[in-house]
Amino acid sequence: MKRFFLFALIAVGLSGCTGDNWGWYVVDPGTPNGKSNLTFLISGAWNTIVLSLTAIAISVVVGLLVALPGLSEKRGLRWFNRIYVECVRSVPILVLILWVYYGLPALSGITLNVFWAGVLALALSDSAFQAEIFRAGIQSIGRGQYEAAQSVSLNYRDTMRYIILPQAIRRILPALGNQLVYMMKMSSLVSVIGMQELTRKANELVVTEYRPLEIYTILVLEYLVLILIVSQGVRWLERRMNVSEG
Q: pTM of the prediction?
């Protein structure tokens, strides 16, 4: 709650800035033009949210599938895990977005719109980090849990599904929440291929209004509000699932 009061204080302070170098009228909700500009800027929030949530959902699934071979006793599967993680983590997200949108169609003949190209690139990049998070979480579970599962004749799949993963997810939930926050911030890079999310909307408005300071300040506040809401949601979920084992 204190953070929201801080945000309100910043907003009030900015609204009081006047002078020849300030042009807050472009985002003043009290004027028709300012209200229209604010509506235009906020309209990109939906695409940012949907893009981030879709990408994080896919990356969690892919990350788990990549993490499991890394826990195998077979060297070939462990090598697959290491090669995937190291290669994907080494590619900057912006470069990956551009490659997926422009390079993948030329390579495979598959054409993706800007939304799915952004989702694929973000999910692919984040899946490597998710794989490491899952691997660490699963390895943190004591060996006794596996032995208990074997004692009741559970196979590997059921052991993971009913015994190991539920406990691991409780432990890695804070890290998963951090990745969601990271994903929402990195979604701004999808603006380079034309995705109409928050950053793209701000860039387009700057071109027409020529007031980058004021418009990008509103953009910062938009991301601040989104991140604070997500952070509070993750903390609520942590308390709900009793993440703390102390």
A: 0.84
Q: CA 1, CA 4: separation in Å to the nearest integer? A: 5
Q: What is the DSSP secondary-structure string of 90-127?
A: TS-HHHHHHIIIIIHHHHH-----HHHHHHHHHHHHHH
Report yes or no: 109 and 143 within 8 Å, Cβ to Cβ: no
Structure tokens of 82?
A: 């290491």
The answer to whether domain 2-240 has CATH 1.10.3720.10 is yes
Contact between 71 and 139 (Cβ < 8 Å): yes
Whether 119 contacts 54, CB under 8 Å: yes
Average pLDDT over residues 54-58: 95
* Ranges 31-35, 117-121, 201-205: which has the least confidence: 31-35
196-222: per-residue pLDDT in tens? 999 999 999 999 988 899 999 999 999
| Those residues with Cβ within 8 angstroms of residue 243's Cβ, 6 or more apart along the chain or in another chain | 170, 171, 173, 174
Domain extent listing, the chain:
2-240
> What ranges make up the beta strands (E) of the chain?
none
**Identity of the residue numbered 182:** Y
Supply the pLDDT for residue 3: 53
